[in-house]
Amino acid sequence: GMEWTRALGLFEELPSRGLPRTALGYAAAMMAWERSGHRAQAVSLFREMRWDNVRANASNYNCAIDAYSTDACWAEALTLVQEMDARWLHCDAITFGSAIAACENAARWQEALSLLWDGAARGVAGNTSYNSAISACGKGSQWELASAVFEEMAPAQIAPDAV
């Protein structure tokens, strides 16, 4: 329904009520924009956090990376993963899955594989990460690499699905 518009309205009213906007509030607003299909607004809120001097948490980063993933903004997604590392924020399966999806959507198979192996080394590469990396390899006509990634799924105890 329209709950997201009410949530965003409340978020916008916080300063006028003398209440600070927190990372948690930004995360909720970003998710509301994203779930309503307005990904650009989610990214805009992520940028606005910096102007408001609110320190972003992993949820804020993950939401922004996910918003970038559908627009194939792979470079921006990679930059945010690097920022998370630099700020000692935990990169999880959502972080890597979304960043790899951004690379997949832009047919950037090298970057997708690099992220996959990084996520796998950290123990957070899930089904979505592997499938997106396989798809990125396919889009780049890297069939042998796609097959090799598929073969890695069994030892990693990842169940393949239709890519």
TrEMBL record:
It comes from Zooxanthella nutricula. InterPro entries: PPR_rpt (IPR002885), TPR-like_helical_dom_sf (IPR011990). The keyword Repeat applies. PPR repeats lie at residues 126-160. It comes from the Eukaryota. The keyword Amino-acid biosynthesis does not apply. Keywords: Repeat. This is Pentacotripeptide-repeat region of PRORP domain-containing protein. Coiled coil: none annotated. NCBIfam families: PPR.
